Amino acid sequence: LLTAISIERCVSILCSSIRRLQHLSAVVCPLLWALSIIVIAAVTSLCLLHEHEHCRMALISMYVLNFLIFAPLMVISSTILFIKVQCGSQQHQPRRLYIVIFLTVLFFLLFALPLSIWNFLQQFSYTVVPSQVVFLLACINSSINPFIYFLVGSSRRRCSLVSLQVAFRRVFEE
């Protein structure tokens, strides 16, 4: 989903003169959820049926798909989006939304991707760091988004504490 959101935002900025399909996100996100559920169900069923070699190949395929397609697309589109927003300061753009997307992707890459890499390496019985480290990073990733929303939503007010609800509203109004 982060990849789809990053690409969609990037395309909407780069092709701002072209009328964007208004319901594209509403269609793409459920399709991605469905695809994710199908892939996870297939991998899980292979692994639960003790089809060790098929399970291993399915897991490796899933990780390779993440590393070679989804993660690079997310990084490229988020970088383009960030550069375009920074360079286009004359236009009125929902900058906070783009900052939230960029930070979410950045922290995903820093905190969640190591777990995927660790899982991938486990398929080859190769361990670089203890599991506790990558699980801690994944937990941080799972809990960091509300803080990103709060900080970006309250960034315009110096030294004043803004409620989390107001910060969420500011970010998502744009």
UniProtKB/TrEMBL annotation:
| InterPro entries reported in the protein's UniProt record | GPCR_Rhodpsn_7TM (IPR017452), MRGPCRFAMILY (IPR026234)
**Subcellular location as annotated:** Membrane
Keyword vocabulary terms for this entry: G-protein coupled receptor, Membrane, Receptor, Transducer, Transmembrane, Transmembrane helix
Q: Where is the G-protein coupled receptors family 1 profile domain?
A: 1-149
Name of the protein described by the UniProt record: Mas-related G-protein coupled receptor member H
Q: Which residues form a coiled coil?
A: none
Q: Which residues cross the membrane?
A: 21-43, 63-85, 97-121, 133-152
Topology versus the membrane? Multi-pass membrane protein
Citing just one GO molecular function, the answer is: G protein-coupled receptor activity
| A single Gene Ontology CC term | plasma membrane
